[in-house]
Amino acid sequence: MKTLAQKGFDIGFGAKKNFASYDLINKLPGWTGFISLAVGIIQIAYQNIPFNKELSILLIFVGIAIIYIDVFKNKVDKYNEEGIRLTRLYNSIRDLYNCVKADNQFEYSNYELKYQNIISDFYSNSISKQVFLSQWFAHFKFFYEMQTDWIENELSLSFFKDKLPNSLKITLTIVLLLTLICIFHEYLLNLCGIRK
């Protein structure tokens, strides 16, 4: 049952990662364009906004990221098709899990062929190159949009250890440390009288 839950995680997460890439390709450019336009209008109207230059630089980097995402436009339908295919496999392995769980006289041979067919189909095709940050988005889509209780219970998954991507934890830690360093640095400069 743990093997079925682990493979269910792999298959379901793969489906959501493809859907995340699909969503990022389709939705991010439009939302970014809208937000950039709104921020640009606000910057024109209120020129004395703190961090005005930094905000402009950030928007330029976001624009560069959109150019990067545009490279994936020709694969957008493949991401959607792969997400649908993996979702079907996810549902099949979940159904198999429920059958095994309900079987009081479990015999591996009764389920081996179906399990092997699902796994073989899972490995038969994949899109290895995904859009940047699709893994972060896929964690959200998998744990909060999909019914994963059976996997969470079987594998004893926890919020901090399993539901947050490690790269997100590292990024948030670095941002927090840099923020604390900047605050502490400003505090020391003010304390020593270097800045008024």
Automatic annotation (TrEMBL):
<dbReference type="Pfam" id="PF18169">
    <property type="entry name" value="SLATT_6"/>
</dbReference>
<dbReference type="InterPro" id="IPR041119">
    <property type="entry name" value="SLATT_6"/>
</dbReference>
<feature type="transmembrane region" description="Helical">
    <location>
        <begin position="28"/>
        <end position="46"/>
    </location>
</feature>
<feature type="transmembrane region" description="Helical">
    <location>
        <begin position="170"/>
        <end position="189"/>
    </location>
</feature>
<keyword id="KW-0472">Membrane</keyword>
<keyword id="KW-0812">Transmembrane</keyword>
<keyword id="KW-1133">Transmembrane helix</keyword>
<feature type="transmembrane region" description="Helical">
    <location>
        <begin position="55"/>
        <end position="72"/>
    </location>
</feature>
<feature type="domain" description="SMODS and SLOG-associating 2TM effector">
    <location>
        <begin position="2"/>
        <end position="171"/>
    </location>
</feature>
<protein>
    <submittedName>
        <fullName>SLATT domain-containing protein</fullName>
    </submittedName>
</protein>
